[in-house]
Design goal:
By secondary structure, the chain is of the alpha/beta class. The chain is 37% helix and 21% strand. It contains 10 helices and 10 strands. Strands 1, 2, 3, 4, 5, 6, 7, 8, 9 and 10 form a 10-stranded mixed sheet that branches. α2 links the parallel β1 and β2. α6 runs parallel beside α7 and α9 packs across α10. The chain is globular and about 55 Å long.
């Protein structure tokens, strides 16, 4: 009887210990994008990094509509972190552009990740040669809730057009690729790191071209929206005949302001110091040299600030140290 009692007591103690450990776990949902883009697989890779390096963290990537959707999820407490375009983040924080009636300030930056190219894709046999040729065509401008929609509207604006001039379709990257392959749409806007899986797949099956912006269009875009940069997309990325004149923005990793400072410090440290755990191709572009690229006046989380001070990128007041 005594042995049975002791066995029951030990079982109860073990159960309490297990429950205590479970309750101590910190669950982190990283809002990303569609499964055929860069955000989702990279988000999963970052989640694995945090799970591997930081005790008690259970992080996972969440497929979403994209940048604007991610900021709303963070603001609503449905995600703790997210991968977002810097331009969309700035619009949300300052209540401008597509967020003019919806200011969101509940997030802060952890780090800049990599450059994202605004790619305008058509089939190789398409008669579309420039932005004005999109008039009257069926064009995917990105999934609803994504930053791609904003980018597409800006590009059309630079060419003297509006969304009313096209037959706009709100499709994910994968849906855009299928739509082009099946000739259900004529063109698609894809804002993503390069190479993008949907475009690569399409290039290998149907053949693609990317539309170059004119120098005048690029100048108008950057003058109106300084968050853009002018970059050349190398022809070898998709086996094209020539380099493509593009605009680009920056992908950021952001988090809710409520996330624990010590935890964000550990996450930031892991992001830059745990070589070999991140396996995604974009991991090579996540460096301290570009940690603040595209951040502008967005706030940086105190936990991240602490790490940047430790590696002498920020001063004691939390200001970026200029080179």
């Amino acid at each position: 009887m005594k042995k049975r009692f002791l066995a029951m007591m030990m079982a109860a103690i073990m159960l309490i210990a297990v429950c205590s450990t479970a309750s101590a776990a910190t669950f982190i949902s990283i809002a990303t994008g569609g499964t055929s883009g860069t955000y989702y697989p990279l988000g999963g890779d970052i989640a694995n990094l945090f799970n591997t390096v930081i005790d008690g963290v259970k992080a996972s990537a969440q497929a979403t509509g994209g940048s604007a959707d991610n900021l709303r999820l963070i603001d609503g407490g449905e995600a703790e972190m997210g991968t977002v375009q810097n331009d969309v983040s700035i619009y949300a924080y300052t209540a401008q552009d597509t967020f003019v009636n919806e200011q969101i300030t509940s997030f802060s930056v952890v780090a800049s990740l990599y450059a994202e190219y605004v790619q305008i894709v058509v089939r190789a046999d398409s008669d579309i040669k420039c932005i004005s040729d999109l008039k009257g065509k069926s064009v995917s401008i990105g999934a609803a809730g994504s930053g791609v929609v904003t980018n597409a509207l800006h590009v059309l604006e630079a060419a003297g057009m509006t969304v009313e001039d096209i037959n706009a379709q709100y499709l994910s990257f994968a849906e855009s690729g299928d739509g082009l392959k099946n000739k259900q749409i004529d063109a698609a806007f894809i804002c993503a790191g390069i190479p993008n899986a949907a475009i690569t797949e399409l290039a290998s099956t149907t053949g693609v071209r990317l539309i170059s912006l004119s120098d005048e269009e690029v100048a108008k875009l950057i003058a109106a929206h300084p968050t853009y940069a002018n970059l050349k997309l190398p022809k070898d990325v998709y086996g094209l005949e020539e380099d493509v004149n593009c605009i680009a923005i920056t992908a950021l990793l952001v988090c809710t302001n409520n996330l624990d400072e010590e935890l964000v410090y550990q996450m930031t440290k892991a992001l830059f110091e745990q070589e070999g755990i991140l396996t995604h191709a974009k991991a090579a572009e996540i460096t301290l040299d570009t940690a603040f690229a595209g951040v502008g006046e967005l706030p940086i989380h105190p936990g991240a600030v602490r790490y940047y001070q430790e590696v002498n990128l920020m001063d004691a007041e939390g200001k970026i140290i200029a080179e």
